[in-house]
Specification:
InterPro entries: FAS1-like_DH_region, HadA-like, HotDog_dom_sf, MCH/BMMD. By secondary structure, the protein is α+β, with helices and mostly antiparallel strands. The protein is built from four helices and five strands. The protein has a single domain, classed as Thiol Ester Dehydrase, Chain A. A hairpin with a 5-residue loop joins strand 4 and strand 5.
Length: about 150
């Protein structure tokens, strides 16, 4: 019997944590072709009024990749065949600055699942990121489409 995708609503994956490393910020800047010195030089970042080297807007993907479960493992936990998967949407919401040296704690939850009569399922996953002070610094939401 095939599991009902809607049974995964509310499912929470194992939490993870990792330190924001200046070297990883620098590597992402190089990969993106972003030569803004605030991502590589702490003195320049402070000249711009920042506390330290800041992260780029999508840097939390680095935290996910280095410290979280693999995407393949996440899909296995949701019973999604990767050959039938589409990435529908991605959005980020920012609450507070994140800097090199910060410790990030993350938890991902399936916040919604909608199924269609044709067998398609739409999963909404939300990851909440908190810093070492338990301050919510960011939320990332993605919608995945499981094809029949």
């Amino acid at each position: 019997m095939v599991a009902n995708p809607e049974d995964k609503k509310g499912y929470t994956f194992a939490p993870y944590s990792g330190r924001v490393e200046a070297g990883k910020i620098r590597e992402l800047a190089l990969a993106l072709g972003d030569d803004n010195p605030i991502y590589t030089d702490e003195a320049k970042a402070k000249e711009e009024g920042l506390d330290a080297i800041p992260i780029q807007p999508t840097f939390m993907e680095v935290i996910d990749m280095w410290y979280g479960s693999s995407f393949e493992d996440l899909m296995e936990q949701l019973d999604i065949d990767m050959k039938k998967l589409l990435h529908g949407e991605q959005e980020y919401e920012y609450f507070a600055p994140v800097y090199a040296g910060d410790m990030i704690y993350a938890e991902t939850k399936v916040t919604d699942v909608k199924t269609k009569r044709n067998g398609m399922a739409f999963y909404t996953l939300e990851t909440i990121y908190r810093n070492q002070n338990n301050e919510k610094v960011m939320a990332a939401r993605m919608m995945l489409v499981k094809m029949p």
